């Protein structure tokens, strides 16, 4: 889905490469590599890829060797050269519109599959590689830079507030457990005191029947003496 010049804003410029003989997978990795960066920085990165100084990290392509400090990476030289030419044409279009080329960023980069015809000769039966590439660059003002900085600070603040809330939630159960332990200790002491009091009551109950038995034993003796007299 390509854009038209009517859909672009005053601060945007576009360049489209149609039917480029490059791999769509390689162009997709390059688009993820340079999207959102300054045009001057992206041009320098692509030139380093062509000279095999920097490897493009591969996140979609499988079975690619690992590079130092990057992980899976590759040097798509052919795709980088064609994409660099399209990026330079987008920069030239922005310059013709009167935009400042030093403050341009790559807003969007879309690689799409092109029409694939068959090879001829010895390679007959195999299809050719074809990719359409669309690059949109945008001029950034000082206000936009401030907005980006504010977004970064707000994200950091939200992260710190979330961390504080998590710490408070983890601390509150500890205080509640301490309070429950302190409440449980007086109950234990009360139970011990009640246990100590209970044996004294049982002793009183046991002493009373002893007195009654003594009185009963004394009464028959007096009756026996009276009968003898």
CATH class of the largest domain: Alpha Beta
Class inferred from helices and paired strands: alpha+beta
CATH homology group of the largest domain: Ribosomal protein L22/L17
Instruction: Tell me the CATH topology of the largest domain.
Output: Ribosomal Protein L22, Chain A
From the spread of the alpha carbons, the general shape counts as extended
Largest sheet: 3 strands, antiparallel
Helix content: 55-70%
Strand/helix succession: EHHEEEHEEH
| Low-confidence parts | 198-217
Question: How many helices?
Answer: 4
Number of domains: 2
What portion of residues belong to β-strands?
Answer: 15-25%
Q: Please tally the β strands and state the result.
A: 6
Q: Please, what is the average pLDDT?
A: 76
